[in-house]
Amino acid sequence: xxxxxxxxxxxxxxxxxxxxxxxxxxxxxxxxxxxxxxxxxxxxxxxxxxxxxxxxxxxxxxxxxxxxxxxxxxxxxxxxxxxxxxxxxxxxxxxxxxxxxxxxxxxxxxxxxxxxxxxxxxxxxxxxxxxxxxxxxxxxxx
Length: 142
Description:
- The chain has helices at residues 9-20, 24-58, 69-100, 108-130.
- The chain has 142 residues and is an all-alpha fold.
- The longest helix is centred in the first third of the chain and has 35 residues, at 24-58.
- The chain is elongated, with a radius of gyration of 24 Å.
- It starts with 8 loop residues before the first helix and ends in a 12-residue tail after the last helix.
- The model is unreliable at 138-142 (pLDDT under 50).
């Protein structure tokens, strides 16, 4: 036999919030999908940073000094870590807003990450076109 407890004020409040937003479950699932997409983006940025740094190991450079490639790789990795951190905090903020039925979308995240990707892309283009090629490379016209 199960004992039925008298509903508390907190239980009544939860039921009331659930009634205010009937698509609450769908909203939470969409928030999770968005979070996972941001996590994939962060991991890709981290991986790209590592690849940029490690490319030097595959081809012996003409210049014996370290060059600037490691700096670009470090920036990519840092932006990847920041992406993971910000996406996690954003996920929990949106989760709270969905529960309280007060969610309002913001443009700042889209603008921030668009700007970051544009700056990183500019760095890659600069790096590719300013790095010396191997003299034996078929890409250099004679």
